[in-house]
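anyone seen this seq b4? input:
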Amino acid sequence: MAEEKFLVPRDVYLKSGIHIGTKFRTGYMDQFIYKTRPDGLSVLNLQKIDERIKIAASFLAQYDPADVLIICRRENGWKAVELFGKLAGVRAFAGRYPPGILTNQNLEQYTEAKIVMVVDAWPDRNAVLDSVKVGIPVIALCDTNNQTNFIDFVVPCNNKGKKSLGLLFYILTKEYMKAKGKLKDDEELPAKMEDFVEE
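predicted toks r here
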């Protein structure tokens, strides 16, 4: 594997545990699984993680930031999602997704989006189902135990760990801002990777 092809050095990925899955694996996620360790944990393919983060960033960058909605019910990802929202200028929901805000125009919090990204398709399923009802494409971070029905684009990763989510959103922010022309190729983000990780 060529080192320079990765968005961050390989050891940075490995240290974050972004590739460590769960003991449970679904058929949906088989294509992203590299191997199963002797302890039963499935390991995700690092190259596919890297490729798909890049694709997700360029996919999100095709939309106006006001039309992008990022949703994260899992507490380990709140800080990362909020910082991504702040730096990229997109809307982020860290915490409980208010059901129906994408489908019910009578709700005070009603909002429109053209693309939705969820941190975990299971805890964030209400957002996924609402998006499907109104025809909004969904990008989802999926671990080895996730189902991927109703998901338009899967980014395989450890979507439970603080370090893993922090690293993923750090890279996503950087790639998204480059694709939007807000960051030069050799320029660093105004936030460090550690800033994306929950305490």
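The radius of gyration is 16 Å. The CA atoms of residues 143 and 152 lie 15 Å apart. kinda curious what u guys think
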